[in-house]
Amino acid sequence: MKVMIFLGSDSDFDVIEDGLGVLKGFGVPFSLEVTSAHRSPERTARLIREAEAAGAEVFIAVAGKAAHLAGVVAAHTVRPVIGVPVDSDALAGMDALLSTVQMPKGIPVATVALGKHGGTNAALLAVQILALADEKLNAGLVDHRAKMAAGVEAASKKLRGKL
Ligand code: RP5
Question: What is the spatial distance between Cα 64 and Cα 48, in angstroms, rounded to a whole number?
């Protein structure tokens, strides 16, 4: 297992679902658990220790509202932590965005976009971190970028055809 994903609630799952597809596509082994920084603090600390022992190199924490899960995970590990703020109804996710991104100096959290875009980018960022020491993953990322660029060109051609 290389990537440990924590969700603050099972209701956060849809935010990371596409990201799981990204990790599967790159063949990156991951594990996922629901744990809350405030409702199950001891479970959270234990799961972090267990994930490190199981070989986790990157952590992803997905949480909404007063989203301190990513910061708490970062407090318990020196491995990189990516925070995904959930775009819940209240304040359209601005609460979670600020809670996740505004970590005081000393304990960094790499914060990605709100919601599903953030979930996908968290997975891609985790792959990029792992690719630093994995040539196959690196080649996969280069190929992924090339496919995206080709997709933009194809979309442009399709639109031009309608003019
Ligand atoms: C946070 O509160 C969770 O990360 C979730 O985004 C939000 C709502 O939780 P539930 O009401 O679904 O348990 O802790």
Answer: 19
Characterise 3 by phi-psi region: left (phi > 0), alpha (psi -120 to 50), beta (else).
Answer: beta
Cβ count within 10 A of residue 32: 15
**Whether 64 contacts 10, CB under 8 Å:** no
List, for residues 40-85, the tens digit of each pLDDT value.
Answer: 999 999 999 999 999 999 999 999 999 999 999 999 999 999 999 9
Pocket test for ligand 1, best of 88, 89, 116 (most atoms within 8 A of CB): 88
35 vs 138: CA distance, rounded Å: 31
Distance 8 CA to ligand 1 centre (A): 6
Q: How remote is the CA of residue 66 from the centroid of ligand 1, in Å?
A: 9
Q: In residues, how long is the chain?
A: 163
